[in-house]
Amino acid sequence: MTSSTADNSSSIDEARERYRIEREKRLRPEGMAQFNELKGDYADFDIDPYVEPGFAREAIVEETDAVIVGGGFAGMLTAINLTKQGVRNFRMVEKAGDFGGTWYWNRYPGCMCDVESYTYMPMLEETGYMPTEKYASAPEIFAYAQQLGRHFDLYPHALFQTEIDTAEWDEPAGRWLVTTTRGDKLSSKFFVTAGGILHKAKLPGIPGINDFAGRAFHTSRWDFSYTGGSSREPMENLRNKRVGIIGTGATAVQAVPRLAETAQELFVFQRTPSAVGVRNNGPTDVDWWNSLEPGWQAERIRNFTQAVTGTKPDRDLVDDGWTSVMWENTQRVPESPTEAERLEAADFATMEALRQRVDQIIDDPQTADNLKAWYGKHCKRVCFHDEYLPSFNAANVHLVDTNGQGVEQITAAGVVVDGVEYELDLLIFASGFEVTTDLDQRLGFDPRGRNGVALSERWHDGAHTLHGVLSAEFPNMMMISLVQAGFGTNFLHFLSKSAEHTAWLIAECQKRDIATIEATPEAEEEWLGVLYSVAAGVGEYSATCTPGYYNSEQNYSDKAARNLVYVGSLLDYAAYLERWRDDGTFAGTRTTKIKGSGTLSA
Length: 602
Hints:
The chain is of the alpha/beta class. The protein has three domains: about 1-30 and about 335-375, no CATH class; about 60-200 and about 435-600, FAD/NAD(P)-binding domain (3-Layer(bba) Sandwich), CATH 3.50.50.60; about 200-275 and about 380-430, FAD/NAD(P)-binding domain, CATH 3.50.50.60. It has 21 helices and 22 strands. Helix 2 packs parallel to helix 17 and helix 11 (about 320-330) packs across helix 12. The termini are far apart. The relative contact order is 0.15.
């Protein structure tokens, strides 16, 4: 990348104005309400295509130490850490047919992790597994999740193809009473919600979705029986098909090149373009792998997180597109009157280089202009791919830019943009997942704590937590989510730290004969103050961004203000948790001790 334009104030002024124009085009008064959940009229989009229909089993009635909601990496790492702490009496409830979470659901062609395998895939040293590539494909990560399940003997604990129906705190018993859609009745001392970050799919609220007469599905429910092929094999059935895909985020960036290979015609419907840098994937160097010393993965994970969210490390161990996007131009731009101006210049230089990359690759000038991202580098997750942009040079691939307005209607025949109907055989929704919606909505159930108070009621004005993990009036409930918790480019680093903390809490309560633990309201407000102090200046930056899930589609309500994440370095967030555990006093919580046989004392 180059910073040759970074010192050109007129260029920055022009970009700032273009950012404003592009943002205002896309503002929608309904905010997050512009999307539909996959239920009710849209329930057919949520059918699991990866299991045989008609699954049934006997209902389970049992008492257990912990119920973990979720079988993705968050739930699995919590279970693994519990096992290491000596807590082995737990149940895992998972909607999918196997472990893997987002990697169970996302099997679309071309799907891979955009973070280096060696830092993303957890516990590689313990399992002895060597990723085949620097950026592993979805099938490999899913298979690795299954391997983790076998390695740590998690399968006997799992209830697959099962969802939570109700979860209620029984005050006299000091336990969570959990019922499921399979008729299970579980009584548990601890209740862990590890429902995942990218698992609940959403659809754009486009009129006529259910009118389409062709085949339609969300990318996380890919129908290979229609397309042919597999995650890694060409989709031969599309050779005589007109295919449309709505969305140009990280999912589409990966799927479009694979669709372009075989579709007779491919129409890519774009509201907002992604910034796309170089991926440069390749096979793992076996000699390098064999030279690694014990402890290498923890060091590499920390180094990467520092490189993208903290102070630039002396040595960049990963040295990829992520670390270059975050640091290269920051270091090169000349001094400015203020630090803010210098950072803006660096931001502009990075994004300008990504826009110039479009010109270098795309043949048609109008298509190139439409594919350029006009927003700051922290507004949306930067993508990295080497085949996405070149796909638009193919004769069978058509970019349908909606000028920020999105698709206006779906008909029986196809998709309408600006009054033009595009006839299609297959319509694919690459419309992403719920990230910043209310936690109870993403979980699919509404936990009820002390005195029957629902989480949605207690959080009617936004989240109330200590560290994003504990909440007042919800004894022994631990949450692993982004709400008021850490955030990082490498989601697995955050999930690992959260799972470690949650398992420690449960095990420590068991060791100390603690019957219940919950946050105090005072501690919740103190933690909110910490979040606000770290977020200073972020809100102003976010207000310049085009709408997206990072800024809740520009929803700046008081409720959204409480649902923020810890926007500082993930290393700093993890340090908060470590200091809190080391203190050993359970500061900011209300606890009760076990007296006699199951009797609680306030």
